[in-house]
């Protein structure tokens, strides 16, 4: 790439896509690496003044027992920054020598894109591409037009992309050993931009995402340069099997501010059947405020006189007693398929599940006396908006003396009997609220909701729940209506 002969440092910086990483961010990035080999071959492509290598080296020096040698390879096109880079590398040498780590260094003042494309394409006879155990990168960002030299070079190794940063990441990925790690800070645009689809496919088929970090403020990471891009940091490992779960974290970007971490199933980050391969980054801000709300609640289920149990009818054990349709001598048997917009729709004659169970000496121990019960699904599908799906069983709607709750649902009761109506409806509103769902997702990364999970939650006191129940004149409210109602009552009690 030829640099414009311009006296304007800003224009030059933009041409180079040069935005230097602030030391706290560099340190945070370095902290994201998993275990490293004793000799680490490290790549810093687009090294600038060397902030990322310095942060990486410093972290290795602190954890003395792990790394014994660092072999660093740095690429930096801007000759004007090379003195600063050399000075930072001297600092790396000094720290390594103090920590007893062997530090070797190669700095190339060359175009990383051109050089690596040629080597990866096998066009430079006798110089195979290097390979690395770790790469730390804040690649340059600038659009690259279809007929540019960079675009042609990238195309020669099968990378079709319109920005320098995705070109850098695609090449770095190709230079990692299997199991090699990459921590990068880049604009967030590749996560869902339609033009980045080929890049996403390439990235997600060769790199296993382990962690994503977002800054709540757009300017946070590069304050001095007033970059208004929204940036993310990712940690990925060269390999073809995406994890079942991964960490999404966020921070305000202000120095010293805390980091909120949440574990999500990978399927929530990249949806299994999404042809676009969008990378969803759930907001963790909501999770933080959910925690604050829940921490402010003082009641427990036990203090409310309420118990939650798993449905007692295990259908395959009582097979002979199950009936597709209600008949004389049977009582209602309820499965999650009977949940219907907040209430129970029973019987459901076209459902695959039985609707009734014989009421006899064998089955009676597994039945409960009719009453007002709150039911929750034990397993929700990934498509469901909420993890916690609660529904009311109202004895006025399903007339029976006894009822069977099947094992795929949990039921809230008062010592084996139904709940007081207002309390039950209040619990219904609370458990279906976004705040509880977000709180739940902080600690549960999967779609299963155990009775124990429900027992460990904090709850509003009885009066607040009853007040919520009083205001819920209909159950089938929209999510934001439930949220407004619940939030209003939670605030009123403060
Ligand atoms: C966003 S800056 C990041 C610098 C440094 N890694 C940091 O985090 O502070 C990207 C760097 O890549 C350099 N650069 C731009 N194009 C390059 C290329 N084709 N090859 C090598 N370096 C390049 C720029 O000069 C700039 O210093």
Tag the structure with descriptive keywords.
494 residues; alpha/beta; 9-stranded mixed sheet; 5-stranded mixed sheet; 15 helices; 20 strands; 22% strand; elongated; binds S-adenosylmethionine
Please specify the SSE layout and strand pairing.
Elements: H1 9-16, H2 23-31, E1 39-45, H3 51-62, E2 69-75, H4 82-99, E3 102-108, H5 112-121, E4 132-137, H6 149-155, H7 164-174, E5 176-187, H8 197-206, E6 207-215, E7 231-238, E8 245-251, E9 259-265, H9 266-269, H10 285-295, E10 307-310, E11 322-323, E12 330-334, E13 339-340, E14 343-344, E15 356-358, E16 368-369, E17 373-377, E18 390-393, E19 402-405, E20 409-413, H11 421-431, H12 434-443, H13 451-456, H14 462-471, H15 479-492
Parallel strand pairs: 1-2, 1-4, 2-3, 4-5, 6-8, 12-19
Antiparallel strand pairs: 5-7, 6-7, 8-9, 10-20, 11-15, 12-15, 13-14, 16-19, 17-18, 17-20
Summary, kept brief:
The protein has helices spanning 9-16, 23-31, 51-62, 82-99, 112-121, 149-155, 164-174, 197-206, 266-269, 285-295, 421-431, 434-443, 451-456, 462-471, 479-492; strands at 39-45, 69-75, 102-108, 132-137, 176-187, 207-215, 231-238, 245-251, 259-265, 307-310, 322-323, 330-334, 339-340, 343-344, 356-358, 368-369, 373-377, 390-393, 402-405, 409-413.
Describe this entry's structure for a reader.
This protein is an alpha/beta fold and 494 residues long. Helix content is 31%, strand content 22%. The protein has 15 helices and 20 strands. The chain has helices at residues 9-16, 23-31, 51-62, 82-99, 112-121, 149-155, 164-174, 197-206, 266-269, 285-295, 421-431, 434-443, 451-456, 462-471, 479-492; strands spanning 39-45, 69-75, 102-108, 132-137, 176-187, 207-215, 231-238, 245-251, 259-265, 307-310, 322-323, 330-334, 339-340, 343-344, 356-358, 368-369, 373-377, 390-393, 402-405, 409-413. The strands form four sheets. It has a nine-stranded mixed β-sheet, sandwiched between helices. A five-stranded mixed β-sheet has the order 11-15-12-19-16, with no helix packed on it. A hairpin with a 7-residue loop joins strand 8 (245-251) and strand 9. Helix 5 (112-121) crosses helix 7 (164-174). The longest helix is centred in the N-terminal third of the chain and has 18 residues, at 82-99. The chain is elongated and about 85 Å long. The N and C termini lie far apart (62 Å). Residues 1-6 and 218-228 have low confidence and may be disordered. Residues 1, 16-21, 46-48, 51-52, 75-78, 81, 111-113, 138, 140 line the site of S-adenosylmethionine.
